[in-house]
Amino acid sequence: LMDSLLVGGSLLAELTNRHTPTNIVQAYELAYPKLADNTSFTDRVADLDGAELLGFVSGVKGKLFEIRYVEYLNDGNLPAGYAASISHNPNNPDWDIMVTGPDNETSELIQAKATDSVSYVTEAIRDNPHIDVVTTSEVYGQLVMQGYADSVIDGGIAASALSAEIGGAISDVTLTPDLMPPVLALALIAWSA
Hints:
The chain is α/β, with parallel strands linked by helices. Helices cover about 55% and strands about 10% of the residues. The protein has helices at about 1-15, 20-30, 35-40, 40-45, 50-75, 120-125, 135-145, 160-175, 185-190, and strands at about 85, 95-100, 105-115, 130-135, 150-155. Strands 1-2-3-4-5 form a five-stranded mixed β-sheet, with helices on both faces. The model is unreliable at about 10-15 and about 175-180 (pLDDT under 50).
């Protein structure tokens, strides 16, 4: 009985200690507000597979990028009296981030592109040349080499880091209970025997 409690307790502790990071949940709620009202991030991930899951991840990744960039801007990287905020519309066609000045006037609109596709970013630049585009560090480097340095901003965030963070949250959700028993608990049982 003691051995079963030790192994079972270790497995239960490992499963219950897994949770979705707050920033991933916030990105999910901003990307899919109506869905998030009724379905948790973990439930949504559990319901999806294949292409549906990839599309879902892309949406959450985009909002996570926006959150991180707004945090960066508001962390002393704007002039005094200026503040950045994310659009209340999750699918705003032209811009994602608004910078407002001391009198609440719109100072700048920014479109965020957390993508690996250079053509996706260049298309956004062509469609809205008056709106600045911020993108991931990897894509920014490629765009500078293609002559788009004046039209794009390096977000200072790697797409691979965003993907790894979301991938970790999804791995925690898709974790199945048929885990290998904890080594420490088994070692203690073997030693006591």
